[in-house]
Amino acid sequence: MAYPHVNAANKYARDVVSGRIPACKWVKLACQRHLDDLNKKGNDWLYRFDKDKAENVCNFIELLPHVKAKWGQRKELISLEPWQAFNFCCVFGWVRKKDGHRRFREVYNAIPRKNGKSVMAAGVALVCFAADGEYGAEVYSGATTEKQAWEVFSPAKKMVQKTPELREEAGIEVNAKNLAILEDGSKLEPLIGDPGDGSSPSCALIDEYHEHKTSNLYDTMRTGMGARSQPLLYIITTAGFNISGPCFEKQKEVEAMLEGTLPNEELFGIIYTIDPEDDWTDPASLRKANPNMGVSVSEDFLLSELQNAINITSRQNKFKTKHLNIWCNAKDAWLNLQQWEKCGRKMSIEDFRGVDCWDGLDLASRLDICSHVKLFKKHIDGKDHYYCFGRHYLPENTINASDNNKNRDAYQNWVNMCALTATDGDEIDFNQIKDEVLEQAEDCPPNEIAYDQWRATQLAHQLEEEGASTIEVKQGYALSPAMRELEAAIQSGRFHHDGNPVMTWMASNVVTRELKGNLCPMKESNDRKIDGMVALLMAMDRAMSSQGEYNPLADYDPADLA
Known about the structure:
Elements: H1 4-18, H2 25-38, E1 47-49, H3 51-61, H4 69-73, H5 82-93, E2 94-96, E3 106-110, H6 117-130, E4 138-143, H7 146-161, H8 164-170, E5 172-174, E6 179-181, E7 186-192, E8 203-207, H9 216-223, E9 232-237, H10 246-259, E10 267-271, H11 284-289, H12 299-311, H13 316-323, H14 337-342, E11 357-362, E12 370-380, E13 383-395, H15 396-400, H16 408-416, E14 421-423, H17 430-443, E15 448-451, H18 453-465, E16 470-472, H19 480-492, E17 495-497, H20 501-509, E18 510-515, E19 518-523, H21 531-545
Parallel strand pairs: 3-9, 3-10, 4-7, 4-8, 8-9, 11-15, 13-14, 13-17, 15-16
Antiparallel strand pairs: 1-2, 5-6, 6-7, 11-12, 12-13, 18-19
Helix pairs in contact: 1-2, 1-5, 3-5, 6-7, 12-13, 19-21
């Protein structure tokens, strides 16, 4: 048997790894993983690559017709591009040695808009519905809205309607809201919102996962697959704005898997985007992030969208998320999320004993997130380097509240990760924060503890009674010099943080108001918390003042800026 698709997939992987095809770090790692796995031998390696299965799936998909745009009008059949063949061959070609069942039970595809995601998802749905050998297959196209769920189901339905040979061979009945095979009860149908238990999916497709506020649909589909011999959970999405949501969490898991820090042999993932050091305004970045550029998405369209984003600031983050697959969170975010994440590193407070340190306290209210930040400063090669550690507190009852709590799932996950401290009861006991501040001060005493007079005056007085040096830091535009220094430190690699995901979320939530060149940290809405960043900026303000750096806004009168 000839294997043109398998050969094309392997060549694509080699070309990406060698640099002949421009690709970001995550695509290179996905390709390298496949090539490395092909060379693995021995009884300890539990998988093998079945070229027949991979080729058969690609052949099946190429018998399906296009149902949209000019290709549908011309009644053309699908023709897989090498990057698509790579995806299908990996997902369906890798099997377990012991039983021949699929290796990958979960797939995460992050691909920018207009790169043929719906065609790929529809192809996967039909393979698992009609050509997978699964008796009584249940295939669901899940999404948050009916319109989005039909983005996958509708093309699949139309493909079957336009392929009478497939209908006859598989015995498919085309109904208004599902496809069915009466002989064994198999079905393919859309699924909207949060499903109840009871389904036994053999394949679940989750389209535009970034729009999901919770992981309910994902969890229900995954836990319902236990009776299936080779279930497949297939996620296909673009980047989004909500980094406290389940999609961003899943992407971080995939990145860790690709880097080898969180091995998972049953997860396939590939992320088409640009690298942090790339200039997003460079047209070359478009080809790196858009594998179907010049095929399903035209170069002229992307260049036009790029120029619009360059010219109109308000369009930049939308362009980055939808066409470069960059997570931005706040639509007019102050900081570049990729640059912030690049500043994360594994480090311990104990390693900074004897280093100059400043604490920042933002206590918000007893019902909301309170943050304590320790900021260390080292003078290296004539430049100031900053090292940030954050602790964040939230009442247990607030975390578990179901009403008006858009962040509940994220809070609960962060508590499980020990990134967020759940305090007992309805309110935060500020004495607990005081005790932890003093406990950390025994090893790393801060030069000063910076606080906001509106919320932390009483605690500051208590800390002073214990021998701490506290200082009130004005808010609003008075934090502008600290914001400018933090910007510069992040961009030049002089800022480092401990990777706390709560702090990363807060960093991405900060938007700004600018007046006469001065910045003021803001948040878009009450659920977009920034308390940890305010605490960091207060500590940064004092760290700068220790060097005699003049802050012209330290004693400002708001009327002076009007």
